[in-house]
Task: inverse folding
């Protein structure tokens, strides 16, 4: 069965053609997976936008308390929240005008993914950007 939220064409396009990724849940804690993923994409030329209630700067980028506070819509919103909170973050990404949402490994909310897709966003779910980056070679 084909996973509609793991389309390799969409994954490649998001990794290759986007420039701005907002990371919901990104705080200045190098021990967290979201920090590792944001740093990796930043090292590969993406502009990252930390989105966390503390609104702290992370990896040299200004932080925002909520997606609604980000001045320009990001190309991709990485939703690094537990699955039970992912739907609200996806809804915020839709409202913010994001082009796509990416839910990492083990963050699965099919209803939220369908809402995003129905709103015209690209959706990747239950995939790791670092793993997908390595596989795209």
Result:
């Amino acid at each position: 069965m084909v996973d509609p939220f793991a389309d390799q064409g969409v994954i490649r396009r998001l990794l290759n053609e986007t420039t701005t990724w907002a990371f919901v849940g990104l705080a200045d804690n190098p021990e967290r997976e979201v920090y590792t993923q944001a740093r990796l994409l930043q090292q590969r030329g993406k502009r990252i936008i930390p989105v966390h209630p503390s609104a702290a700067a992370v990896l040299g980028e200004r932080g925002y308390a909520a997606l609604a506070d980000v001045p320009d819509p990001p190309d991709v919103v990485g939703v690094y929240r537990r699955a039970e909170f992912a739907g609200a973050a996806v809804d915020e990404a839709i409202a913010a005008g994001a082009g796509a949402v990416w839910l990492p490994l083990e963050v699965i909310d099919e209803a939220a993914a369908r809402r995003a897709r129905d709103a015209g966003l690209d959706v990747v779910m239950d995939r790791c950007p670092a793993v997908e980056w390595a596989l795209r070679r």
